[in-house]
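the two lines:
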Amino acid sequence: MEITIEQKQGQVPVTVMKLTGNLDGSNYQEVISKGKELYEAGTRYLLIDMSEVPFMGSAGLVALHNLALLMQENSLPEAEDGWSALHAASLASKKGKQTNVKILSPRPSVDRGLERTGMRDFFDIHTDLETALASF
Amino acid sequence: MSKNYLLEIPAHLNNLQTVRDFVREKAAGFNLSQEVLEDVILAVNEAATNVIVHGYKEEQGIIQIEIRGEETGGCQVCIRDEAPLFDPTRIPTPDLSLPLEKRPFGGMGVHLIRSLMDEVKYNITIQGNNELTLVIKQKEDF
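prediction for all of em together
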């Protein structure tokens, strides 16, 4: 999977993380690691461009979940602690749809996965970049 | 006459793409809609991922995928492995009403399988191995 980063400006600085390729158990930790790198560099608003992600398994949901909580300044276990650590982590609370991480143009099959797991309720989904940037 | 296709592959996360490609190629001939085909691919991906991560704990092992088209339409996919016996159909449904910050990470694989497939069956083979069978039936409106 290729991850490209671009800095954009909406009402706030927004980092656009574009994912290209399939997102599954073999590479979801790369997305989390990149997210942590961005957070440490100061990113707090993240737009994940999924227009070039033909497939996302449930591991991709783990990555999105991690990024959403990371950008809300919740602490997370290290990715190298493995699946179990990520699975077992519990986090501080802030109710409702989070607004720090949004998703751009998920493909229909990816969107269905978000919907079926209830994860769609937690992310603003946009189909237009400018609208997405302005929404932060 | 139904057709059977078999893939046997090392159980490694880097082989998930091979598993998906195999299902995509073989199931394409079973008269499934594009949406249903994508559902089958995702379900098999999830089952295979669970075998690799939780069954073999990312140690060495083999995973076998057998896909069969049904004469009445739809298809059946069997995922077999030699990891310690475990019945994933017993895993409880996750609480989807939890807010994001209270959800545990992960745990959606089996839920996706159940929601995408018409039937999910677990069996122990005569060799004493795990066998998970995923069934998708022909949809009347397709």
